[in-house]
Design brief:
Elements lengths: L1 H25 L15 H6 L14 E3 L1 E2 L4 E2 L6 H5 L5 E7 L6 E8 L8 H5 L7 E3 L14 E2 L1 H11 L14 H16 L1
Antiparallel strand pairs: 1-6, 2-3, 4-5, 5-7
This protein binds iron/sulfur cluster (SF4) (2 copies).
The site of one iron/sulfur cluster (SF4) has 15 residues, from helix 4.
Amino acid sequence: MLAKLRDICLGFWSLIVGLGVSRKTGFESAVTEQYPDAVFNRPFKRHGVPPRQVGDCYRGILALRWDWEYEIPTCIACRNCERVCPSKCISGIESEGRGKLRRATAFNIDLFQCCFCGLCVEACPVEGKAIIHTRDFETVSRRRDSLVVDFEWLHERGRRYHPRPEGVAVKPWPPPEATRRSRQGAESGRDQ
Ligand code: SF4
Ligand code: SF4
């Protein structure tokens, strides 16, 4: 009889403790999130640039750097990155202009295939690199083909990491001296 009474008391006490915990946690803010719906692109939405969750040398999602001086892409479409990529995930590079005036107009990266090895960045001959690693690491998607990112996407992300520096005046593109030189070269070629 006594044992039964003790069990009833213990059960009742457990119920009281359990309800107390539920009451306490029920009014606290949630510490979990519905991933990926709640957090996809969250760092950008909340902060503009992701908080420094990883080191500067972290090889995250790739991006293309924008040339703020001339308001053009920095990529000269040399295709070095495409050649060295072990995953063959860089494709569709197109360009316009010739010689030093050549700039990329199309560029795709399949982030699903990319192994973030960094070889493309190393091989890029552009000063300060045209292709860069960001510190982003979330590549969540429900469709594989949505991870093939294009020229616009890559530049948009690049601009977040290399925003327009203050006080930089935009220069005309192509630079007048380059246009003059290329015209002189064409004329001397015609004379020969
Ligand atoms: S990081 Fe490596 S795998 Fe990814 S695009 Fe560059 S070279 Fe290819
Ligand atoms: S990102 Fe760099 S290596 Fe790749 S095509 Fe452009 S300039 Fe060449």
